[in-house]
Write a structure and sequence with these properties.
Chain lengths: ~35, ~500
């Protein structure tokens, strides 16, 4: 992928990433499975 | 002679409801299963013939304790022959049995669609400030792991001792193309920025029955879901849940091919590792793919060297023994991925989740000068696995054409509704579609019909390859109701 495409992709990722990343990641707690 | 490698996957999805004060994961998972809108009826899963405590080493049963009430809340069988249920507080999709590894990958992808549709239904029932999220991954980043298992049919004649000798090295070295990538280390493993797999940190034994703690590289669960005098079901628990279609195909295809050759005793050597558990962690943590692992009896080899050796042996085997075209496709993809991994792992970012995600994380990190511990990187890594295409970072790559595909959206949608044609899953799924209101319960190897009120009739399906479209299609065309079906099956059986 050329750098312009990567920049566009990163911009798009920024626009869809969940708000308040720190709280989002911290609160993602699962029970062990299987 | 090796038997056909009937195969399938079982995936537990991560689930959370954002902004809910009191998370109850099991209830969220149950809401997902209940929310799935597919099919005219929902048929209950039957637990008959399920014995997860049965051990392939012949030890009998370990005590698994009382079933958790919350793990048996909701459990159903879908029109595509799959099972959808709550397992250990996770929504789980078990794909229908397939023979072709390409079909295996397709039905694994159909599971993502099932979960996405279910989540959209659940979202409609939530207050506006709460959002449900489902992830096809295997870890919460806080040392809790949930599974993505593969199943392969083996002959009962295959001694399990040979499985234990031959399998660990193959399973541990294949991580270089089965990993989905993970930020950081868990479960007290040495710290790292990023590693190849989600699961390696959680493996602590070479062989064992457990799946929830002290996880073994070779799982001994002996629950064939078929005629126990003829079959074993190899339950592979060491893989990652993958998003990449090519990668799922590779994982299933290469493993099935390995098992074919293994069962035919066509592998010249077991290639045993000195310490498979240590090698499992080492390989997952070595992004350069250059660190050798110690072999039993001296010497060392990299995971790539081991996989190239298997490739050479299995290419030779397949040339003489595997006629179907799909196995050549498996070999070509496998060789391509190994050659590219050897030249530069970045070259595989169009087909492997771990290198695709790593490339994105590195680009994102460089642009914003972030450390590896930055929460936005962890958020990106988690959101790569979101089952909702609108939010999924994996889907952003697909849309830009950066990720190769094997299937169209239409093929995945069809696989969500219709069963594969080459196994008993065709009969199961067809019965759910056509006679679902008379189907009281179903499981992998039987169907329970209510012919008349209170009059239950069980139809056994102990042969995984019987009940295919070719095999059962004419019968299904002739009959118009369950009573007719049962009558004809009764006449056939005697």
């Amino acid at each position: 992928m050329d750098s312009q495409k990567i920049d566009e992709l990163l911009d798009e990722i920024d626009s869809v990433l969940e708000e308040n990343a720190e709280e989002f990641v911290k609160n993602y707690v699962q029970k062990g499975g299987e | 002679m090796a038997i056909p490698k009937v195969l399938g996957t079982e995936t537990e999805f991560g689930v959370i409801i954002r902004n809910r004060a009191h998370q109850h994961q099991a209830l969220a998972a149950a809401a997902v299963i209940d929310g799935y809108p597919g099919g005219p009826v929902r048929v209950q899963w039957s637990y008959e013939h399920e014995s997860p405590g049965s051990d392939s080493r012949g030890f009998g049963h370990e005590n698994f304790g009382m079933p958790e009430p919350e793990s048996t809340l909701i459990n159903s069988v879908l029109t595509n022959g799959a099972r959808l249920y709550v397992d250990h507080s996770h929504p789980e999709y078990s794909s229908p049995e397939c023979v072709d590894p390409r079909a295996g990958a397709l039905y694994d992808k159909a599971g993502e669609l099932v979960m996405a549709k279910a989540a959209r239904q659940v979202q409609k029932t939530l207050p506006p400030n709460q959002q449900i999220r489902l992830y096809k991954n295997n870890s919460d980043g806080k040392s809790s792991s949930y599974g993505a298992h593969e199943n392969y049919l083996l002959s009962r004649l295959t001694p399990f001792g040979r499985v234990v000798r031959y399998l660990p090295t193959f399973l541990v070295s294949r991580q270089i193309f089965t990993g989905s990538g993970k930020v950081g280390a868990e479960n007290y493993r040495p710290p790292c920025s990023y590693q190849i797999t989600q699961r390696a940190d959680f493996f602590e034994e070479v062989v064992g029955l457990e799946t929830t703690l002290r996880r073994p590289i070779v799982n001994t669960r002996d629950e064939p879901h078929g005629d126990p005098t003829r079959y074993r079901r190899l339950h592979v628990i060491i893989g990652d849940a993958n998003l990449s279609e090519v990668q799922i195909f590779l994982k299933l295809g290469v493993t099935a091919l390995f098992l074919h050759a293994f069962e035919d005793q066509a592998l010249p050597s077991a290639l045993e590792l000195a310490d498979p558990v240590k090698a499992c962690w080492q390989i997952s943590h070595d992004l350069s793919l250059s660190e050798p692992v110690e072999m039993e009896g001296g010497g060392a080899a990299t995971a790539l060297q081991l996989q190239f050796q298997y490739l050479e042996w299995l290419s030779e085997y397949a040339r003489h023994r595997m006629e179907e075209e799909v196995w050549q496709v498996v070999l070509d993809e496998w060789e391509g991925v190994l050659v590219d991994l050897e030249r530069d792992p970045k070259l595989t970012a169009d087909r492997l989740d771990w290198t695709a995600k790593l490339g994105l994380l590195e680009a994102y990190r460089a642009r914003q000068s972030m450390s590896w511990s930055h929460p936005r990187l962890a958020a990106l890594a988690l959101q790569y696995h979101d089952v909702e295409p609108a939010r999924s970072i994996y889907h952003r790559l697909v849309e830009t054409g950066a990720m190769r595909r094997l299937f169209t959206d239409a093929e995945i949608e069809e696989a969500e509704r219709c069963p594969p044609e080459d196994t008993r899953a065709w009969f199961r799924g067809s019965c759910v579609s056509r006679f679902g209101t008379s189907l009281v319960a179903a499981n992998w190897d039987s169907l329970l019909f209510e012919r008349n009120p209170g009059d239950l009739v069980k139809v056994s399906m102990m042969e995984p390859l019987k009940g295919s479209r070719i095999n059962a299609g004419p019968l299904m065309e002739r009959v118009s109701d369950p009573a007719g079906l049962i009558r004809e099956l009764g006449e056939r059986n005697g």
